[in-house]
Amino acid sequence: MKKTIISLFLLATLSLQAQNYKPETYLGVNGGVTLSQVNFIPVVKQSMLQGLDGGLTFRYISESHFGLIIESNLAQRGWKENFTDTTLSYSRTLNYLEIPFLTHVTFGNHKYRFFVNLGPKVAFLLSDKEKRNFTNKLLEEHGKTIDNRLDYGLVGGAGFELRTGVGCFLLEGRYYYALSDVFSNAKKEYFDRSANNSISVNLTYLIPWQKLNLSK
Questions:
Q1: Which segments within 82-211 are labelled E, that is strand?
Q2: How far apart are CA 121 and CA 153, in angstroms?
């Protein structure tokens, strides 16, 4: 009985805190470095391709430790191949417009916070560019047209936030796992799987909505 009363008291306290919490809205910018590759089946020997990403960030915190982040980013993905003949080189950069929808969970006090982000992401291929030092097609993917311009998958990240009088600074590491394929995986096609994978390190700067005077 005593445990039940304590549990009810804690639930009531948390409920009251949630009701008294004033939601927070932020706008800002983000930017960072990406390392990406494509998960090919059959396997293509490759290493991580370095690129950039960045864009706009909207964050809405509805409760003391929970919120939502939506971004609109330009991001470079792709792959860099490894050859037995070290004089050969090939890489392909895929330029996407991407929109992540992330659940934002925070831990810590008002000034210093750790956070975890998790959610889906959709992206649309704007352009792609091959870079190679040979002219003949050596492998199936060389010169092959991108079949699926729409890319989607799951994003997970964690980081640290510092809140100051001029805004919030967030440093975050992320991992992206695509559920879609770059090339068609129909039975007649060569590749059964060609999914984007990437890790990134990003710095985000957020300003409270009220300081921007956009609501006036």
A1: 90-108, 112-132, 150-164, 167-178, 193-208
A2: 6
Using pLDDT thresholds of 50, 70 and 90, give the confidence band for residue 13: very low
The b/e string for 62-83 (b: 16+ C-beta within 10 A; e otherwise) is: eeeeebebebebebbbbbbbee
Alpha-carbon gap, residue 57 to 39, rounded angstroms: 28
Per-residue model confidence as pLDDT tens digits over 134-192:
988 999 999 999 999 999 999 999 999 999 999 999 999 999 999 999 999 998 999 99
Residue 8 has pLDDT above 50, yes or no: no
Helix (H), strand (E) at residue 66: strand 66-81
pTM equals 0.86
How far does CA 106 lie from the centroid of its chain?
Answer: 17
Which residues does residue 159 pair with via DSSP β-bridges, in sequence order? 115, 172
Chain centroid offset of residue 183 CA? 21
CB atoms within 10 A of CB 170: 25
Q: How far is CA 140 from the centre of its chain?
A: 29
